[in-house]
Amino acid sequence: MPGPLYEWGFSGIIPRMVKRNRLLEWDDAYLIGVAELDYEHKDLFDRISQIDADLRQRTTKEDIEECLGAIHARLEAHFALEEKYMRDHGFAGYAAHKAAHDELLDAILGAMERFREEPGLSYGERLMTRLKDWVIDHVLGDDQALAEVAEQRAPAKSGLFRTKASHPRT
Fold it and tell me: What pTM, to 2 d.p., does this model score?
């Protein structure tokens, strides 16, 4: 029986994103208009949801630690790509954006350490709830600024970036 964790979602102009059977469900409202990052975000949603499903089926300490480690590794790889994109495009908000990435990675490492000291599935469940909220807020918030920088630097005829009129947050 799914608990409240799997019923949470946004309301208003942002469509409901989380279904009962998946932690994160992709929707085009998450697109930022940068093809390589949009692809990466879609993949990130799929992988985090798969890791969450695996985590809910694991019962041994070692299996749960493996899932938590997989989450950390996947996010670390994603953040490295995003940070390279920011450096390559001279993104003025790089330091703050990177700090947000580092803070989440540190929180995951902290949860892993607490779990090692006192095993319990609730650490994984709480982490997944926080991760879900963070990823959605980050993609819909902070990552939107990356598209704006790219739009300013791209030729107007490029079709890689959406116009303001097609942006889901306007």
Answer: 0.72
